[in-house]
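Dear Dr. H.,

I hope your travels went smoothly. While you were away I took the liberty of generating a structure for the chain from your last submission, since the lab meeting agenda had it listed for discussion. I wanted you to have the full record in hand beforehand rather than looking at slides cold. The sequence, exactly as received, is reproduced here:
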Amino acid sequence: MWFDSWSDLLRIAVVGTAAYVTVVVVLRVAGKRALAKLNAFDLVVTVALGSTLATILLSSDISWSEGALALGVLAVLQLAVTWTSSRRPRLRSALTSGPTLVLRDGEPLPAAMREQRLTMDELRQAVRGTGTGSLAEVAAIVLESDGTLSVIPADRIGDGSALAGLDGPPSRLG
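The corresponding predicted structure, in token form, is as follows:
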């Protein structure tokens, strides 16, 4: 079908505009964390917001008010979970994974890599991305809770305080 009716197109234009404004307001009220790339929970909320917006736009079975309520519910749930997890470490560990040290002093940590399902090629790619040509020049690689790999060159390890709380901090720290 190429065209159903002008009223369908008008509905999408009007409801789409209202839904867009609603998403912007909800995100402003929810704060920066609503679209953060911090952990799996944040990703789920981000995807759910997008899916809800698409449903509001394209489904004539869903009214704007129902969609606005759904967006608000998602934002409130995310606020509640993030507020609680920032104050309750046990809940935080249930919702998010912590960072994992996967390379120390240029040597990969095979058990950690297996557990996190990382390959040597992925570690090398992360190292190359920093402009470093040798694993021996790397003090640590950390798989962060958002899935990114942080590479700390040996000449930039400093006092190693950024690695506090990780199992097996680099041995160059003493």
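Two observations you may find useful: The longest strand covers residues 138-143. Confidence is low (pLDDT under 50) at residues 168-174.

With kind regards,
E. W.
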